[in-house]
Amino acid sequence: MSKKLTITAIKKRKGEKPLVMITAYDALFAKLLEPSADMILVGDSLNMSFAGRSDTISATLEQMIYHTNAVCKGAPESFVICDMPFGTYTCKEDALRNAIKVFQKTPADCVKIEGGKDKAGIIKHLTDNGIAVCGHIGLLPQSVRSEGGYKVKGKTADEREQLLKDAKAVEEAGAFCMVIEGTKAEVAKEVAQSVTIPVIGIGAGAEVDGQVLVFSDMLGFFEEFTPKFVKKYLDGATLVKKALQEYADEVQNRQFPTEEHIY
After folding, report:
1. Is 38 annotated among the ligand-binding residues?
2. How far, in Å, are 31, 123, 198 from residue 134 at the CA level?
3. Quick one: which residues bind 3-methyl-2-oxobutanoate (predicted)?
């Protein structure tokens, strides 16, 4: 990537070259991902990938700020999105105060808010006060407990209609793009065509304006479970284990360090 994308440039990609978004949580991986990604999402999924939790709910604003700073340090030329964690935007006042904290304490380019029509007022309050917002509709990981699990959206006519309303409400509230997650592909396509801002899919088919994946899923580091929508581009866990075993064997057999590694 030659230079950092702007919000204007991202919006111009609507219906054109699909946008590439990937998660990152630290400077090391952010630097590796930067050349290929249009946008880097510091997702609250770090609560699962890094902290080993069963969901994203207990991620804190302090965690998100810490990891966002690390990612921005490693990928200074990337457009970086900070997830607003559960409980930090339950009302307009809290949302603005916490989003301002993110903007003041990190170089993040925008924040991401889960919710559609029900969160439109909060999104508008943020955008009216100088906070760039990426929306998030469809399956909402922060609502997993209230919904009783991760459930694919868009299966019924009512869900389809609600998703269309959600997308339009998020757009009208001033979001410059949105993520749509865990949604039937034909419905996600219709949603993307119904708004003028880019719609980034995750588990929502190919007929949207871009894709996002969790880096540890697509690189094969997370072994416990692989969602249906994830393609593993690398068998990362196996490669790491093999390298570590080779290291252990050489240490135990006094084959490492050799002369070239000794002062």
Report:
1. no
2. 22, 9, 10
3. 44-45, 83, 112
User: Is residue 23 in some structural domain?
Assistant: yes
83 is in an annotated binding site: yes
**Annotated binding-site residue? 45:** yes
Clarify whether residues 130 and 73 are in a common domain: yes
In a shared domain, residues 166 and 258 = no
- 24-76 pLDDT tens trace: 999 999 999 999 999 999 999 999 888 888 889 999 999 999 999 999 999 99
Residue 79 bridge partners (DSSP): 39
- Percentages helix, strand, coil for the chain, rounded to the nearest 5? 45, 15, 40
Does residue 2 fall inside a structural domain?
no
Domain that holds residue 246: 236-263
d(CA 8, CA 189): 22
Please identify every residue annotated as catalytic.
181
The verdict on residue 29 lying in a domain is yes
Distance CA 125, CA 130 (A): 9
Q: What is the pTM of this model?
A: 0.96
**Model pLDDT for residues 118-145, shown as the tens digit of each residue:** 999 999 999 999 999 999 999 999 999 9
